[in-house]
Amino acid sequence: MFGTLLFLHLTGLIIWLGALFAIVVMLFMLRKQLGSQEPNKMAKRIIRSFSMFAHPSAVIVLISGVIMIIQMGMGSGKPIWLNVMEKGGGTIILLALILTGILGSKIKKRLSTAEQPQQVKLSGYLVSLSSMIVLALSVVLIVSLKI
């Protein structure tokens, strides 16, 4: 059972971070063309399509991680890396789900109503997605090194 959960956890992590990275790269490349109808539609489609992978896989990472922590049953004598994985990883996933969901819907609304290129700013959304990627990878590094 633990092996299956670990597989789900790592697969979900790969899909989640890959989807976030794809959104960042594609929107970064597309940002200069935004303002006309076709690039705006494409940006909305990119956000919607990759969010369909990112959000469910983040939930899978969270649920499988919680179940694995419960199964370990270490109590209060957990090493630091396990505390970082449990508390830091869970917080980052919840924050990412909430933040990317809210900001993604705001960006999609702006892309739907934008008539001039200056009205659509993706920098805040791209920075928040990039920050979530860096934070998640930081947790993976700490857990991998077992600091």
TrEMBL record:
<keyword id="KW-0812">Transmembrane</keyword>
<feature type="transmembrane region" description="Helical">
    <location>
        <begin position="6"/>
        <end position="30"/>
    </location>
</feature>
<feature type="transmembrane region" description="Helical">
    <location>
        <begin position="124"/>
        <end position="145"/>
    </location>
</feature>
<feature type="transmembrane region" description="Helical">
    <location>
        <begin position="80"/>
        <end position="103"/>
    </location>
</feature>
<keyword id="KW-0472">Membrane</keyword>
<feature type="transmembrane region" description="Helical">
    <location>
        <begin position="50"/>
        <end position="74"/>
    </location>
</feature>
<keyword id="KW-1133">Transmembrane helix</keyword>
<protein>
    <recommendedName>
        <fullName>Copper resistance protein D domain-containing protein</fullName>
    </recommendedName>
</protein>
